[in-house]
UniProtKB/TrEMBL annotation:
Family: Belongs to the acyl coenzyme A hydrolase family.
Highest rank taxon of the organism: Eukaryota
GO MF terms, alphabetically ordered: fatty acyl-CoA hydrolase activity
Lineage: Eukaryota, Viridiplantae, Streptophyta, Embryophyta, Tracheophyta
Protein's name according to its UniProt entry: Acyl-coenzyme A thioesterase 9, mitochondrial-like
Organism: Gossypium australe
Listed InterPro entries: HOTDOG_ACOT (IPR033120), HotDog_dom_sf (IPR029069)
Presence of keyword Protein transport: no
Amino acid sequence: MIPLKRPLSHPFFIFNKSNSKSLRSLIKNTRSTNETFSSPISIFYFKFSDSTMPIFAANSSSFSRVNTHFPDSINQSTLTSKAQTFPQIRTFCVKRTNPNAELSASNDIPIVSTVSGPIQTSQPIDAGSSMRKPISLWPGMYHSPVTNALWEARSSMFEKSYAEKDSQTELVAKTPSMSRTSIAYKFSSDYILREQYKNPWDEMRMGKLLEDLDALAGTISYKHCRNDDGATRPILLVTASVDKMVLKKPIGVDFDLKISGAVTWVGRSSMEIQMEVTQSTPDSPDPSDSVALVANFTFVARDSKTGKSAPLNQILPETEREKLLWKEAEERNKMRKQKRVAEKKDVDNRDEDRLNALLAEGRVFCDMPALADRDSILIRDTCHENSLMCQPQQRNIHGRIFGGFLMRKASELAFSNAYAFAGAAPCFMEVDHVDFFKPVDVGNFLRFKSCVLYTELENPMKPLINVEVVAHVTRPELRCSEVSNKFYFTFTVRPEAMKEGLKIRNVVPATEEEARRVLERMDAERSQ
């Protein structure tokens, strides 16, 4: 319960003259003590924490609902009751005693639901303090329980940096352990939290997990940029790319889950953060078998005033594992640079035979549709699209659209596309390397276009469905449209569905441009 300090003359405490006078009399006779008293008005009790101002709090037995909005004093602490829980109210928060407190020493961020479900009896936790962050620091209350917790942790860093932005701090070397942070999902005991991450087939919503991974990686990057005094230089940190993520084992929503990560490599103005998703189940109690997913995020730093690249605190690996992770990240960084150089070369010398082979069946579909293979389908006939306006509630701490939100929307569209194509619920396998080409701003018109690019049918019991999602940033006023991101997801279907006679069709291109996209993806898969 958070106490509410208000003057006794406030109309909120005046119910009638007799009760008001008796309450004032009781306060006058006992204001020098430091005890708790029950008032003649059964709604409140009060305690004298000092000799000048009593602290009032609500008795939960007297309320069925409490109004916590005081427009004439919006900066005051919120009055909270222990009243009856209303299941239709679904807000989430982090259980914290001080809204400005830094991350705990263990670096664990517990995610707690504030509404009791059918199998829970815990009382709601007050989330009022998180609603009063400055608008420039606190994005809209759109985000998931995890991103809410991370925005609160991250904004506490920014409050100090903004207050001390005139102070010049020097770059320092930091160890990976100084940025290590983890999130614990108590799915086994938190019904409401479990409901937020469950899809219609009682499986994990992978799009929400990708969103949380990006949010935690961003928080870790800011943590690395803080100095020993807690100040953060005024820089912008943005997601540049995400390496290929392969699901090593299925992730369920009935068992507790943990995401942890740390900075593993730092260049001059970029850093790599390795994220690990772990889940122990009765079938795999061994910690070495609990790793379900590993992801590597690359962030780049920009000066908040000039937009140019900004230097970062260097990394100082200590343990043998940290040194090994640094070496692996260094190799990946070199490979990224080589890949960018190779992509700039002329691609006209591609294998013409492979291109013609891909187009052969497509030409039959276009020129002689009655004779086309009934087990095949054109790429253009698998297309789905989703359009939306970018709202302020989806922005990140810099006022631009949160990268994790884009990943989630792309993942959900890809899942829907694979579902409509296969005729059975798909299972997520992997998402390939993601590059963020263009920033997305509030007010932009965002279009996601997806298609099944190709299928792999060599294993009849485990067919692979490769889905492409391209995000276009459209600005109608300027009559322009640019590609913001390209996502490539791989799904499969359950073996039991294949045993029941489900058949996955072959996908063929109809144009040379489509055939080149297919070849590029096939070559990219083979090179990894």
